[in-house]
Design brief:
Layout lengths: L2 H28 L10 H11 L2 E3 H8 L3 H13 L3 E5 L7 E5 L1 H6 L5 H10 L6 H21 L5 H10 L6 H4 L30
Antiparallel strand pairs: 1-3, 2-3
């Protein structure tokens, strides 16, 4: 790796880290008096289920990018509260279907989309119009390059067609793989091209 590429990689990682830190701080302030935070732990599960009230447990774990054990602990807590129910799949008795209850739907706080967009947009106020245009072009090039590297048969392609596009106006807040940090114990190492959604995980 050349010195320039190494510097770009270092600066980019620092940017993601700083953005993640600032965003999590903002969300902690916003939801500090709430029982459920849609950006971590049980709240992330409920927020996703609110978009798709019925989903296979395996798929839920993949979308959240958490280990089987961590997901089971979260689901146990949510089930005790009456927020979800687990049923054996009729197609595969070894698998479980997770369903959101009315109580779980009511417990999920509404997200403030306008606040979220305003916060992100403010990050670019330090740039001129020309600099913003240039940055936009550069980011588009990088995004297209990453998309071209993804195999059409990749697992994420399946979910994008079946799930993300169905909820394109809802999922942008919950799914934040860009700034997420993921533990090394994830059970989804085989899907290394896709690192999951949401912020730093807190299993509570």
């Amino acid at each position: 790796m050349s010195n320039k590429r190494k510097q770009l990689a270092t600066q980019f990682m620092q940017l993601m880290h700083l953005y993640g830190h600032l965003y999590r701080h903002q969300m902690q302030q916003t939801y500090r008096n709430k029982d459920i935070n849609p950006y971590k732990g049980q709240g992330r599960v409920l927020a996703l289920l609110k978009m798709q009230p019925e989903i296979m447990q395996k798929e839920l774990g993949y979308l959240l990018d958490i280990s089987t054990q961590a997901l089971a602990e979260l689901l146990n807590k949510l089930e005790k509260k009456g927020y979800i129910i687990r049923e054996q799949s009729k197609k595969d008795r070894r698998s479980f279907v997770i369903k959101l209850t009315d109580a779980g739907r009511e417990a999920t706080p509404e997200e403030n989309d306008e606040m979220d967009y305003n916060y992100v947009e403010e990050l670019f106020d330090c740039l001129t119009e020309e600099e913003q245009d240039n940055l936009l072009n550069y980011i588009e090039i990088i995004i297209k390059n990453i998309e071209n590297e993804l195999d059409e048969d990749d697992y994420i392609t399946f979910f994008r067609k079946r799930f993300f596009e169905k909820h394109e106006n809802q999922h942008h807040n919950l799914f934040r793989g860009f700034w997420g940090f993921h533990n090394k114990d994830s059970s989804h190492h085989n899907h290394h091209k896709f690192k999951g959604f949401g912020g730093k995980r807190h299993d509570r």
